[in-house]
Design a protein that fits this description.
With 150 residues, the protein is an alpha+beta fold. It has a single domain, classed as Transcriptional regulator MraZ domain (Chemotaxis protein chec). It is built from 4 helices and 9 strands, in the order E-E-E-E-H-H-E-E-H-E-E-H-E. The strands form 2 sheets. It has a 7-stranded antiparallel beta sheet with strand order 5-3-4-8-7-1-9. The chain is globular and about 45 Å long. The N and C termini lie close together (4 Å).
Length: 150
């Protein structure tokens, strides 16, 4: 599954987000893998298959076994599953919610920015859009256009 584009969404006070129905390939529920990446300043959401492929890519790119094991340990320490119901709602893991609230400096409901990055979606506090904009070369991040394809 490939993700591209961007969209805004809401994080409600209890940590729930709405996932596009295009994520869903099963009628009842979907399990997504949520990785809180403090180095990148975002929460990354993968399908289970996408997460497996991402770890395989990491393995191919790191020649030193100890460095690879250290990277996988760090990643897995900050990775949790998120179940998505038939309506596309999921509750982010507490670590991800706390991280996004800290990034946005907000409690309660807040606006999120979703960026499709090929094999995953990166989720940022919308309050960080100016920083994201400058980091990624002044792309217009105000439109609602998140494309999800095979």
């Amino acid at each position: 599954m490939l993700f591209s584009g961007h969209a805004e969404g809401k994080l409600d006070p209890s940590g729930r987000i709405q996932i596009s129905s295009q994520f869903k390939n099963e009628p009842d529920k979907l399990t997504l893998v949520v990785f809180t990446d403090s180095d990148a300043g975002c929460v990354k959401i993968y399908t289970e298959e996408g997460n497996r492929k991402s770890q395989e890519q990491l393995y191919r790119n790191i020649s030193d076994r100890l460095t690879f094991v250290s990277a996988i340990r760090k990643r897995n320490l900050h990775t949790n599953n998120m179940n998505v119901d038939a309506q596309g709602r999921g509750t982010l893991p507490a670590e991800a919610v706390d991280f996004l609230r800290k990034q946005g400096g907000q409690e309660g409901a807040m606006t999120l920015l979703y960026l499709g990055v090929m094999d995953h979606i990166e989720v940022y506090s919308a309050d960080k859009s100016d920083e994201i904009d400058s980091a990624f070369g002044s792309a217009d991040l105000t439109a609602d256009s998140l494309y999800i394809g095979d």
